[in-house]
């Protein structure tokens, strides 16, 4: 990567090839396979070493040694309906024991997930069998989470995403859009906002979106004189950091934007007793996502890393022509690309209109996946499909843990105990709870890499708080869910952040300055929305904020 990011743009000025023979405009130089692998630091290695023993000690102490006061005399009146049914069926003593086991498994799993002492998918498998052996969940309830409808939606989404990648539809679209509308520095930045939004509607893996766009970003950065390392400039800082921000905010716009969004929608849907539709999420989140992307572009390019007039001028003659040639090299649009586009548009239209035809997003994705795999009709074969089963197993563990929290009511019990201990009574104002929950969810992203894990922790808490204080579940849980994707402040906060940091176009301080500024702005926008927009859309009842 050093030759990629530190090569000086010199030598042959007409084609951009530097003195080392490296061509910064060759997109093949920025393939993910050619990027160096991030090595674990000392702290990460230490965490991995202590994670296993620490998780085991926590499990033994919480399950067999330590007596947790708030689990000894549980008030059944505070429990959700499903947990109340279990309480009545097994009795208070057994119910308390199962909650102790649930807490022990929950804490141990969090330790393993955070420290990465073992792979995340292995932690999920361990917690699933632990929930069975401790009798927190019956086997059928523990194992069938792999067949959860959201899991199937994830699988089908990966099939559809593979279709777009294999046929190179998304690469063609991104190149075409940049060539067509990227006439200036400003229009390039705005073009990436549109590209990221369209990619996010269909590709739930944020890392995949980063991988698709990375070569295009790097070539454009080089055109404007940013080849990384000693040759950093504010254009390069902005083009990469803006895309990192947009990749995540684009995912926030759609329920299918990431697996964590789907998990949050499932939790909230179960809590309110009805499904969260694709359109339910999009009509609230989409305007917010576009707004915050535009704010991010303005703040980044005008204030944090202002781009001078000189930096807005291309440094490599004919640079944009290279992107045009890259597009021309793809040739005329092929029949399989047209079929992929038809499948893509049809699925998207059916998702957007789900409220009218009542076909679930999962069923729509099923139909799209089947058509895309059909011999002679489809455009992708099974061997071309890239399904990250390790991520699906990790998600299955998260859903199983969620099922355990549901039958034990542990989240509600803990929330009730914590707020009682802090002196929060029934008269606690809504805005205080809103500030605590949204702020905690938002800034937890500074410490946790997994969006799924944060969702698993904070969405049930938000639901529990809403129930405890008598507020509508949606008024607290949904605003918290809309903050899931804010994982861009530091390189270890998400996989796209780690990937793009390796480009060497910016420093830790650069990403922190832009990221923490946008995180604070996002919190302000969330608060402002609670006072206005969320009331208009029926999320927060009038008079609560």
Could you characterize what this model shows?
This protein is mostly helical. The chain contains 25 helices and no strands. The protein has helices at residues 2-5, 42-65, 81-90, 92-115, 120-133, 139-143, 149-166, 169-181, 185-200, 206-223, 234-252, 259-272, 278-304, 319-329, 335-352, 354-357, 361-373, 389-408, 410-421, 430-444, 451-469, 473-481, 495-501, 508-531, 533-536. The N and C termini lie far apart (51 Å).
Question: What keywords describe this structure?
Answer:
25 helices, disordered N terminus, mainly alpha, 545 residues
Short synopsis of the structure:
About 65% of the residues lie in helices and about 0% in strands.
For the terminal residues, how far apart are their CA atoms?
A: 51 Å
Distinct helical segment count: 25
Shape: globular
List SSEs in N-to-C order. Answer: HHHHHHHHHHHHHHHHHHHHHHHHH
Largest sheet: none
- β-strand amount: under 5%
- The low-confidence runs, each spanning 5 or more residues with pLDDT under 50, are 1-15
Average pLDDT works out at 89
Number of strands: 0
């Amino acid at each position: 990567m050093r030759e990629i990011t530190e090569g000086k743009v010199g030598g042959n000025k007409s084609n951009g090839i530097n003195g080392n023979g490296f061509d910064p405009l060759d997109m093949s130089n920025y393939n993910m396979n050619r990027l160096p692998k991030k090595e674990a630091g000392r702290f990460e290695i230490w965490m991995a070493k202590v994670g296993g023993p620490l998780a085991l000690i926590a499990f033994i102490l919480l399950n067999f040694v330590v007596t947790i006061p708030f689990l000894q005399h549980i008030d059944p009146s505070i429990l959700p309906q499903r947990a109340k049914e279990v309480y009545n069926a097994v009795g208070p003593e057994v119910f308390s024991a199962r909650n102790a086991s649930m807490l022990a498994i929950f804490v141990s799993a969090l330790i393993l997930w955070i420290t990465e002492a073992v792979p995340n998918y292995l932690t999920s498998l361990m917690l699933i069998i632990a929930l069975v052996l401790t009798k927190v969940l019956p086997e059928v309830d523990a194992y069938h989470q792999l067949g959860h409808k959201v899991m199937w939606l994830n699988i089908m989404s990966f099939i559809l995403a593979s279709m777009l990648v294999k046929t190179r539809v998304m690469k063609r679209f991104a190149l075409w859009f940049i060539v067509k509308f990227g006439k200036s520095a400003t229009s390039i930045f705005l073009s990436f906002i549109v590209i990221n939004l369209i990619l996010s509607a269909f590709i739930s893996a944020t890392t995949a979106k980063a991988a698709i766009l990375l070569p295009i970003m790097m070539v454009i950065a080089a055109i404007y004189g940013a080849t990384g390392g000693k040759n950093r400039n504010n254009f390069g800082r902005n083009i990469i950091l803006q895309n990192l921000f947009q990749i995540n905010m684009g995912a926030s716009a759609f329920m299918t934007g990431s697996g964590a969004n789907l998990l949050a929608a499932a939790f909230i849907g179960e809590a309110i007793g009805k499904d969260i539709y694709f359109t339910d999420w999009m009509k609230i989140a989409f305007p917010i996502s576009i707004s915050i992307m535009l704010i991010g572009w303005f703040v980044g390019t005008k204030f944090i890393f202002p781009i001078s007039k000189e930096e807005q001028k291309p440094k490599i003659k004919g640079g944009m022509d290279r992107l045009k040639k890259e597009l021309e090299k793809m040739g005329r649009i092929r029949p399989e690309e047209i079929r992929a586009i038809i499948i893509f548009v049809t699925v998207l239209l059916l998702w957007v209109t789900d409220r009218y035809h009542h076909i679930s997003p999962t069923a729509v994705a099923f139909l799209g996946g089947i058509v895309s795999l059909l011999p002679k009709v489809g455009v992708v074969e099974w061997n071309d499909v890239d399904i990250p089963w390790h991520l699906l197993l990790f998600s299955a563990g998260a859903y199983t843990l969620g099922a355990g929290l549901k039958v034990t009511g542990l989240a509600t019990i803990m929330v009730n105990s914590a707020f009682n201990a802090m002196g929060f009574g029934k008269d606690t104002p809504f805005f205080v709870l809103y500030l605590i929950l949204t702020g905690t969810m938002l800034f937890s992203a500074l410490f946790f890499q997994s969006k799924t894990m944060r969702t698993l922790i904070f969405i049930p808490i938000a639901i529990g708080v809403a129930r405890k204080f008598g507020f509508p579940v949606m008024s607290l849980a949904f605003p918290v869910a809309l903050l899931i994707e804010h994982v861009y402040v530091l390189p270890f906060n998400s996989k796209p952040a780690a990937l793009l940091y390796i480009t060497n176009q910016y420093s830790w301080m650069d990403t922190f300055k832009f990221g923490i500024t946008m995180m604070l702005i996002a919190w302000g926008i969330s608060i402002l929305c609670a006072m206005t927009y969320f009331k208009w859309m029926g999320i927060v009842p009038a008079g609560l904020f």
